[in-house]
Design goal:
GO molecular function, one term (chain A): acyl-CoA oxidase activity
Distance between the termini of chain B: 54 Å
Radius of gyration of chain A: 27 Å
Oligomer: heterodimer
Largest sheet of chain A: 6 strands, mixed
Number of helices of chain B: 24
Binding site for FAD (chain A): 154, 193
Number of strands of chain B: 11
Radius of gyration of chain B: 27 Å
Number of strands of chain A: 11
Strand content of chain B: 5-15%
Family (chain A): Belongs to the acyl-CoA oxidase family.
Largest interface: A-B, 141 and 137 residues
Helix content of chain B: 55-70%
Largest sheet of chain B: 6 strands, mixed
Active site (chain A): 437
Shape of chain A: globular
Domain Acyl-CoA oxidase C-terminal (chain A): 487-668
Chain lengths: 671, 667
């Protein structure tokens, strides 16, 4: 069997017929040409030495060997970052720019690095919740990787409802120490990435007790392993939690304390303090300020899922250009599957969504930065709105991305089921983000709470904040008349959101009128409330995506403008068609409007078709980051599948020993 | 047994007799007894089957070895049992198969599945009598282990495009099998990697210089004694997958491999000694095996979904989180309506799909009689039905199991929950044995044909509604009952098919070729086929319930009726946009539907645990830390974690090799 080394011809043809300048869109997505240049420089430093490659496919190893391999590569990558990348960019790359480092890290880990939470949660929490003295003590050591930390909040028995956490930190003024304790099994910390075997420090969230009173949950920095021997310290029980659907190299861990003592100043004291004598002092309006870190983490998450969705779209679109199947017209050669409208329907919305989420995440970050500046001036008024927005945006983007990545996987047929395609791992990674950092349903219910409040304000004629200003118009009760323009679709989406919120309010009121308590009425209306919050968020994404597209392509070449506009329209019509029931119910859209929208949608698919490969090329993933037999730039799909298969340890010998032990006795009736 | 208190409370308040429902699900009291007997035999070998390091901690290669070890034991138990029970009679093949599938103890599948699911059935349907006599006894006794190789690296659903060739050489009376390109390598067949020594290979038959399309050949792959691959054959496994890592999927390529003439399966077509090709009587007869396999897939999907909902429902009864009211203790998450919304539809779906598939199966058996008599009238209909039923059931079960997994929050992400593996099996079913989109388009092709011939054709039962919905006044007045909703769905389906047909006509009028118009309309065609399938599932579920419920006790009848209601309401609300677009449903009607749906969830709430208990999946088969009967969720999670080889030592060696040098700046 000779495996050809030459690039796939169909893919080359696709690239030849692409009618826009690919790098222009790359620059838009990166946030400017300078950003693109820097990203490429970082990628070339990290990838050129070949240290990211594996000889044996990681997925054929046992979990222990996979972990060991991940540690090896984490250390190599960290060293490259420390020695070469930071000198280029300065420490700034670790902050809001860290997505470039995250992106590049994917060349080293098919799954995930055990160091993820060190920069992802440990360092940001110290920055966000430590006093200046605490920051100057801990941050240099952490940023230099002299210590490796993680963040432990979730417990075996308690997740999203953080008030229910059971771990306690009780202040002892005699020794000026906190005593950390886990009273029972359900209080064990569970899930923290890098906790099992890797980290020697950990931020632990616990119920603070002092002077006989509980003050709710607070973060503490806790040393869990000896810096020299790495052995867990006495009173600490730590280990890894076992295999998961994904994240299998992140050594997610459990952690329990048996009356374990830490110094008083290991409590992170920016927002509240415990004085030497045990007096509790609240420094800032605590509940609102912790929103800050949460919003930051969620913006990062949206960015990350957009990036992973872009990978899946790249893989599936390139594969669809290479794969040929069936006959569209009898007697003709098998067509590229990308020519099927059903396939375009599955894939192009993925490209559009990757753009929509990337741009929304950038926009949210900008808005958030502005609010942060306000907050320094003491103005926290916009925080609840931003928090509600980040909640639903996180929920929707993780859920959409997971569903669409799965759609990409299914669109690749059986080959998408191969781990070497990388689609299953992308899915298992992204589907986890749907649950962690706030579960989908819970977050949408939080947003719903904000929306209901806003609706009541609008009803009573009080002013509402910008993202819900549409309510002021909708509360009047007029039905919006459909027009097929982008602005029309967005407006209709807002009207649908308003309609659903209003129905939920009516439902709650009806139930209360029938004698139910508010909480019960709220609970019974839960399904509708989730749907209302989803619709609200969808309208905001449509709106932001539209405005940002127009803004960012203002100076683009005509063809880039056209294709970006087509993608945006595709996204808008896609969601209009997904929600025709809502449109029929809450606006005065007619059946004919829907038919013409459907037709427009199908035309957009056809218009985007010739540029599809160009559009995914514009995401500009090096093969090392994409890690996919189906999605590599050269399109050597079948050759790569076979090359990877031949690396399986099972294929190293023609007959496995189990034949002699079991199979042969079975077949010969001698078992 | 020390059972979690919350779970015990749930069981105490269950309103119906769980055993009664179990027996109904099993298909009768005797069946339940039979199953329990096999379970006892399996438990007698508990240590060999379930001892040692949990499979999730093994490497890819070790997983394969474990799969062979455990599944050989299971196979032997079931084989012995069946031999004792019915003397090795093949008449009840479906029972043998479902029994085997029910007792897969490795969570990532078994390398023997294909032997029973494809290798044997293909022989039954495509080999002539003499060939059956020669091969079947050996295959049935597992003296040989087979696989079925159709899909190629470059070719899947479109089987006419397969590249493997079988060229007849009249001089030696042999076929020469050959794989001309890398894309022609067979890729995917289960057990083919290192397990099977025989394989049915589908190849393009060439004789006397002419190609006669694809045919099936029986090919020996490995030496029966040494298991070494035979000369000219390149065989191996295809590497790690998202799930099903224990079924040993393989690739195979042939370099001018010669096999005897009689290794062509000759029931439907023959090549005579001189190379003359004799055509089959009816090519449609091949549909038979496909319908069979697709029905089996539906049963198997239901099997896995019932595991997933059992796990998720029990966990939801044990898990407590958040407060419904301030100052009350945290409540069981199963009390949240949003949680009930995610889980109860899964329970109802198990019953709906199982009853539908059973009915399709029975109809198919009846039709087989007609087929032997030469009457092929209903074959296209049943084939179209099997296509969309396979597509819709695998898509629904995969989505609902995944929903169940997510409903368990982070813990559902643990492999020790069993949910990720269960979802991965169901996911695979969406693309294998005919990709779901392609299957729905096949059904659509049938529907379009029926629609176009509506005035002249004699309508077969499953599409008869297309004409009745057209009668005047059929759907003038919306009616919120189950029957009314079914009528609504019939109207939706009819309208969608009709719209597709006129849309294609319009496109062809404006100059598109028929093929192009079909492709441009295919998104709508897929949706139309799905609607048709929903009509069938909901109405079968309803009709079958009415038929069997007279034998139920009143308590069981009540709860099953609620499930039928729930299922119907769920889909009505899910497809509300279709109903709004195509029927006379009003806004008030939809609000009532929503309210009734919410009330039904509430009514089912106290029986939820009883309903999943009735699936009666023993802990050893369920293999879940979250779903075990006793509800010791947190204890089991920790127990499983402690079995991790990484936890066997406090410090992993990578610390000394890499971490410490890094932290001390000495790397």
């Amino acid at each position: 069997m000779e495996l050809s080394m030459s690039a796939n011809e169909d893919l080359a043809k696709e690239r030849a017929r692409c009618d826009f300048n690919v790098s222009e869109i790359t620059n838009i997505l990166d946030g400017g040409i300078e950003r693109t240049k820097q990203r490429k420089k970082i990628e070339s430093i990290a990838l050129s030495n070949g240290k990211c490659r594996d000889v044996t496919p990681e997925e054929t190893l046992g979990p222990k060997e996979r972990y060991e391999n991940a540690i090896r590569k984490s250390c190599l990558y960290t060293k490259i970052v420390k020695d070469q990348v930071l000198t280029l960019t300065g420490l700034e790359v670790l902050g809001s720019n860290s997505s470039v480092l995250r992106r590049t890290a994917d060349a080293f880990f098919k799954d995930i690095s055990p160091f993820l939470l060190h920069l992802g949660m440990f360092v940001p929490t110290i920055m966000g919740q430590g006093t200046p003295e605490q920051q100057s003590y801990w941050l240099p050591r952490a940023l230099d990787f002299q210590i490796i930390g993680t963040y432990a909040q979730t417990e075996l028995g308690h997740g999203t409802f953080i008030r229910g956490l059971e771990t306690t930190a009780t202040y002892d003024p005699d020794t000026e120490e906190f005593v950390i304790h886990n009273p029972r099994l359900t209080s064990y910390k569970w899930w923290a990435g890098g906790l099992g075997k890797t980290s020697n420090y950990c931020i632990v969230v616990a119920q603070l007790y002092t002077q006989g009173k509980c003050y709710g949950i607070h973060p503490f920095i806790v040393q869990i392993r000896d810096e020299d021997t790495h052995v867990p310290l006495p009173g600490v029980r730590v280990g890894e939690i076992g295999p998961r659907m994904g994240f299998n190299t992140a050594d997610n861990g459990f952690l329990g304390f048996d009356h374990y003592r830490i110094p008083r100043n290991h409590m992170l004291m920016k927002n509240s303090q415990v004085l030497k004598d045990g007096t509790y002092v609240k420094v800032a309006s605590h509940s609102k300020l912790t929103y800050g870190t949460m919003v930051f983490v969620r913006v990062m998450l949206v960015n990350e899922v957009a990036f992973n969705l872009a990978k899946a779209a790249t893989i599936a679109v390139r594969y669809s250009a290479v794969r040929r199947q069936s006959e569209k017209i009898s007697g003709e050669p098998e067509p590229q599957i990308l020519d099927y409208v059903t396939q375009q329907h599955k894939l192009f919305v993925c490209i559009a969504t990757a753009h929509a989420l990337q741009l929304s995440s950038n926009w949210l970050w900008k808005t958030f930065s502005a609010v942060l500046a306000d907050m320094r001036g003491g103005n926290t008024e916009n925080l609840p709105e931003l928090h509600a927005l980040s909640s639903c945006l996180k929920a929707l983007s993780t859920s959409d991305s997971a569903a669409l990545i799965e759609q990409c996987r299914l669109a690749c047929g059986g080959h998408g089921y191969m781990l070497s395609s990388n689609l299953p791992l992308l899915y298992s990674f992204v589907t986890a983000t749907r649950t962690y950092e706030g579960d989908y349903t819970v977050l949408l219910l939080q947003t719903a709470r904000f929306l209901i409040k806003a609706w009541e304000q609008a009803e009573s004629g009080k002013p509402v904040t910008p993202t819900v200003s549409y309510m002021e118009e909708a509360v009047v009760g007029n039905k919006y008349k459909w027009n097929g323009s982008a602005e029309g679709i967005i407006k209709a989406a807002y009207y649908v959101a308003a309609g659903k919120i209003s129905s939920s309010v009516a439902s709650i009121r009806k139930r209360m009128k029938n004698g139910k308590a508010f909480e019960d009425a709220w609970e019974l209306t839960g399904v509708q409330l989730v749907a209302a919050a989803e619709t609200h968020c969808r309208a905001v994404i449509c709106d932001v995506y539209r405005k940002e597209t127009v803004r960012l392509t203002a100076n683009s070449s005509p063809n880039v403008k056209t294709v970006m506009d087509q993608l945006n329209m595709l996204y808008l019509s896609h969601w209009a068609l997904e929600r025709t029931g809502d449109l029929l119910r809450y606006t005065s859209t007619t059946e004919d409007d829907i038919i013409s929208c459907q037709q427009r949608y199908e035309e957009l698919l056809a218009a985007i078709r010739p540029n599809a490969v160009g559009l995914v090329d514009a995401f500009d993933f090096p093969d090392e980051i994409l890690q996919s037999t189906l999605g590599a730039y050269d399109g050597r799909v079948y050759e790569r599948l076979m090359e990877e298969a031949l690396k399986s340890p099972l294929n190293a010998e023609p007959v496995n020993r189990s034949f002699h032990q079991y199979l042969k006795p079975l077949m010969q009736g001698k078992l | 047994m020390n059972v979690n208190k919350d779970l015990q409370n749930e069981r105490n308040k269950c309103s119906f007799n769980v055993r009664e429902l179990t027996e109904f699900i099993d298909g009768g009291k005797n069946r339940t007894l039979e199953r329990k007997h096999i379970e006892k035999l399996i438990l007698a070998q508990k240590d060999e089957l379930f001892g040692g390091t949990p499979e999730d901690y093994l490497s890819h290669k070790e997983k394969y070895e474990r799969a062979i070890q455990t599944n050989v034991i299971i196979l032997k138990i079931v084989q012995d049992f069946m031999r004792d029970a019915n003397g090795g009679d093949l008449t009840n093949y479906r029972d043998v198969l479902t029994t085997l599938l029910n007792f897969v103890v490795s969570r990532e599948g078994t390398p023997f599945a294909l032997h029973f699911m494809m290798f044997l059935p293909v022989f039954l349907s495509q080999a002539d009598e003499e060939q059956q006599m020669e091969w079947l006894p050996r295959a049935w006794n597992c003296n040989i282990i087979g696989s079925y190789a159709q899909t190629e690296l470059g070719h899947g659903t479109f089987i006419r495009g397969l590249e493997t060739t079988a060229t007849y050489d009249a001089a030696t009376k042999e076929f020469v099998l050959h794989s001309p390109t890398v894309t022609s390598y067979k890729w995917w067949p289960g057990a083919l990697g290192h397990t099977a020594n025989y394989c049915v290979v589908v190849a393009q038959l060439h004789t006397k210089g002419q190609c006669h399309g694809i045919h099936s050949f029986i090919v020996q792959v490995r030496d029966e004694e040494t298991h070494m691959p035979l000369a000219g054959i390149r065989v191996g496994e295809i590497g790690a997958k998202m799930g099903l890592n224990m079924i040993n999927n393989g690739f195979i390529g042939f370099n001018h491999v010669r096999i005897p003439r009689r290794h062509l399966l000759m029931k439907h077509a023959q090549v005579l000694e001189d190379g003359t090709y004799v055509k089959s009587r009816n090519s449609k007869l091949n549909y038979g095996a496909m319908v069979f396999v697709r029905v089996v897939i539906v049963f198997d999907s239901v099997n896995y979904l019932s595991k997933a909902v059992t796990i998720a429902t029990r966990f939801a009864a044990v898990r407590r989180q958040s407060q419904l009211k301030a100052n009350e203790p945290e409540c069981q998450i199963i009390d949240f309506l949003t949680q009930q919304h995610k889980l109860f539809i899964g329970i109802a779906t198990c019953h709906a799909l199982k009853m539908t598939a059973t009915k399709l199966w029975d109809t198919f058996n009846e039709v087989q009689q007609q087929l032997r008599g030469g009457n092929l009238e209903r074959l296209p209909e049943l084939h179209a039905l099997a296509c969309c039923l396979k597509a819709v059931s695998t898509a629904d079960t995969a989505a609902l199991a995944e929903g169940g997994r997510r409903a368990c929050g982070g813990h559902g992400y643990m492999r020790s929950s069993g949910l990720p593996q269960t979802c991965a099996v169901l996911d695979a079913a969406c693309t294998f044995e005919g990709d779901n989109t392609v299957l729905l388009l096949q059904t659509a092709r049938f529907l379009v044909k029926v629609w176009r011939g509506l005035d002249t054709l004699k309508l077969t039962p499953t599409v008869a509604y297309l004409r009745t919905t057209l009668t005047e006044g059929f759907n003038d007045k919306w009616d919120n009952t189950v029957e009314g909703i079914i009528k609504g769905f019939q109207t939706v389906s009819m309208r969608k098919i009709s719209e597709c047909v006129s849309c294609m006509a319009k496109r062809m009028m404006s100059g598109m070729s028929q093929e192009e118009a079909w492709n441009m309309t295919s998104v709508q065609l897929v949706a139309a086929a799905e609607s048709h399938c929903r009509v069938i599932i909901i109405s079968y579920f309803h009709e079958e319930f009415v038929k069997v419920s007279s034998s139920f006790s009143p308590a069981l009848r009540r709860v099953m009726k609620l499930l039928v209601e729930l299922y119907t309401l769920y889909w009505a609300l899910d497809k509300l946009q279709d109903l709004l677009k195509y029927t006379s449903i009003s806004k008030t009607d939809t609000e009532q539907l929503q309210e009734r749906y919410e009330d039904t969830l509430n009514a089912l709430r106290p029986d939820a645990v009883g309903l999943v208990d009735a699936f009666d999946i023993m802990d050893e088969i369920l293999q879940s830390t979250l779903g075990a009967y006793d509800g010791r969720v947190y204890e089991r999670l920790m127990e499983e974690a402690l079995k991790s080889p990484l936890n066997a030592e406090p410090v992993n060696r990578s610390f000394h090799q890499y971490l410490k040098p890094l932290m001390q700046g000495k790397l």
